[in-house]
Amino acid sequence: MEHPSVLLISGNQLKVPYPVYPLGVSYLATYLRKNIPEIKVDVFDFNLQTIEQLRQTIKDAQPNVVGISLRNIDNVNVFDTQNFIEYYRSIISNIRIHSKAKVVIGGAGYSIFPERLFEYLQPDFGIRGEGEESFRKLIVALNETLPDFESIEGLVYRTNEGIKVNSRINYTKNLHLEFEPELIDYYWHHSGMLNIQTKRGCPYACDYCSYPMIEGKFTRNLDADLVVENLMKMKTDHNIDYVFFTDSVFNISNAYNIDLAEKIIKSGVNVRWGAYFTPINLDKQQLKLFKASGLSHIEFGTDSLSETMLRSFNKTFSMTDIFETSRMCSELDINFAHFLILGGKDETLATILETMENSKKLPPTVFFPTIGTRIYPGTQLCRHAIKNHIIHHEEELMQSVYYLSTEVNSAEIMAEARKTGRKWVFMDENLQPAMAKMRARGKKGPLWDYIIQ
Question: How confident is the prediction for the chain on average, in pLDDT?
Fold first, then answer.
């Protein structure tokens, strides 16, 4: 395999609330093309293509290595639960029928269940967490007579003793990004935005969150100059003028964010952007600077408007922080939404009523609540669920298992929300037709700001 051909597949087909550009696949493809320039890298996206087209692509490309990104295990919607594991299994089965290529699986969804999915899906290799350098080293190793798999961080593989998951201590910071030209038009038209990262990792310890397993707890900022370079290239080459920074939490590293915002302004790129924020570690001067650099939308991972539930989620902020940050955004005319988790562990009718009452005290905004909390392995919530006999062991969690309060139900929650007179969007509502009409009229960005208006 002196000059291998690599096929990278985005397995995601979830398009609610909108299709998301396969950013991880593009980061990986860019990294491989830059660091092993002699290889040929093709990209296949199941949001645009079919299983029949995959068979033809395999026939045409004759890849030696096929990488599959598993972005989601399920749709995290208690109203309409869909699990994607069997679908991923069918992709691998089709590859096996039509190719002798080594199959490598990775991605956010895979990284939550690395051993269990490896055992069930039967790939040749898996990569847990950050994939760029690990994938490069794997390709090099596969070309060696005596490959050293033990030295490849994050690699999952089978040994005589069983499945082994290599640990990780090193991370990549200097990441170039080239978007796939054949994908850009589709996502820009149907999503109204493209994605980019400015940092990876999350230092917080929310009791339900799987991000530390996916990206690690150590926050590393990506090269700000490269981020700006990517923004300029998107604008110049494709006229993309709205991006979403997909960091787990954008406002973690103040010095870095200030530097990034100043460089965006200096570049004159003139793009609008949004990101996930937490309602702490933020002041008005920063928000003014971010707005000057293009910030137009904030999505707060607030989770609850009840002090009791904020403590239950192990949040590091209070209702005072939520009120103050929301007020600052309103004064600066920055649209913001609050994403909530209602009806999970420790939720009662009293905490729901507290959330509803506090929702009425906030400036104009929109609330996006989920009902119940998806339980993921390795989390505080998982340990609590096992202790309280909600589940018996982590193996159950490959299916969609939610922690649901026995003291309040979804009908009560939705009824109380309607009483507030505020804008609530529950996951049982189908906004797709309205969103499609706005996209057809050329509306860009997340669109929920129109709900506020």
Answer: 95
